[in-house]
Design goal:
The chain is of the alpha+beta class. It folds into two domains: about 90 residues; about 100 residues, Alpha-Beta Plaits. It is built from four helices and six strands. Strands 1, 2, 3, 4, 5 and 6 form a six-stranded antiparallel β-sheet that branches. Helix 3 packs antiparallel against helix 4. The N and C termini lie far apart (about 95 Å). About 10% of the residues are buried.
Length: about 190
Amino acid sequence: MQDILDRLSSLSNKQKLLLLGGVIGAILAFYFFLVFPDLQDERQALITKRQGLEDRLKTLRKIEEDIATFKKKHDDLQERLSLQLKLLPNEKEIPELLRRVSNLGEKIGLKFKKFKKLPDVKKDFYAEVPFEMVIEGNYHDLAIFFDGIGKMARIITVGDVKLGAPAEQNGLVSLTANTTGRTYYFLQ
């Protein structure tokens, strides 16, 4: 080793600079041909990975926005469903609802000659509960009764109204209305 140092010290400054330049050149060539390509490949792999992660992040953010939208739609639909469920009684509430219809007519002054629940008619997701009514009263009271049914909190429809011939009773004109009412409930 001392021999190498002696030889180096005996070189001229120009030779020392050329030797130093050659060593630096050899180090740079080693770096450029052996280390740099691996670093470039690793850099390119990291760029590709980063781009993939950014794309995935964009996709996840879009999904997050969609989830928020779908959640809002779901909440809106749940609210609408609960409102609809309030309009339709459940099966256990039907007798009470029919009692309220009957009570409404009696409060107005109508006489029920017939009030009969008919068999339920099952549909896709709900059932129809028809009931037959034969009601006696004046035209005005019948109109108030049908209007009152329309204003009830639950869905009740009245159809097939057939009015009988007017008859005079106690100085008042009385009509007999034959009609079918319907209410509905959701099937479980």
